[in-house]
């Protein structure tokens, strides 16, 4: 069974781009500057996906539940932003990303990117990776009053492009993406190679899983306009 959708939305970190190496490097440079021990990249990768503030807090405390001291957090934020600004655009697309986007675009699907990453990092990353021009809409973590897992970013994209939520699918790598898609009333497809806080995706909660993005097109029904023109 194929999904009859017009819009395909993509998460960024852990779905389109392998950003963990650069995020970990920036976070560890921040920790060293603050006189704190460095963390393994694999641990930092489990902190990705719920916005940069949560990432910084978790790196400072080594926990997803403990809050750092306010003064320490205030010192850490500009350090992380400076270090990540310096290396963010070194991140590369995962295998299959570019051909998948090319095929989806060729077949007439509307494409958007929706991420919790701040816009100051999102746009340069997508541009440097050669992906920005594939997307009609790009929504970052600070573009709207709320971010994923709230449905607002997904609903905003649907409204902007004149597509019903039931005619859209979100492709992501985390529970944050799954919750946002469910709340918005969209389909959700996940990849297994992302940063879902170190946990495996519960396949019972998603509409489909793919090993890489080139498989997404096989899940979708061709848009009616394209079929009529063929």
TrEMBL record:
EC number: 3.1.3.18
Stated name of the protein: Phosphoglycolate phosphatase
Active site: residue positions: 11 (nucleophile)
Record GO terms (molecular function): phosphoglycolate phosphatase activity
Pathway: Organic acid metabolism; glycolate biosynthesis; glycolate from 2-phosphoglycolate: step 1/1
Annotated binding of Mg(2+), by residue: 11, 13, 173
Chain segments annotated as transmembrane: none
Function statement: Specifically catalyzes the dephosphorylation of 2-phosphoglycolate. Is involved in the dissimilation of the intracellular 2-phosphoglycolate formed during the DNA repair of 3'-phosphoglycolate ends, a major class of DNA lesions induced by oxidative stress.
Top EC class of this enzyme: hydrolase
Species the sequence originates in: Methylophilus glucosoxydans
One Pfam assignment: HAD_2
Family from the record: Belongs to the HAD-like hydrolase superfamily. CbbY/CbbZ/Gph/YieH family.
Catalytic reaction equation(s): 2-phosphoglycolate + H2O = glycolate + phosphate
Reported cofactor(s): Mg(2+)
Domain of life, source organism: Bacteria
Keywords: Carbohydrate metabolism, Hydrolase, Magnesium, Metal-binding
Classification lineage: Bacteria, Pseudomonadati, Pseudomonadota, Betaproteobacteria, Nitrosomonadales
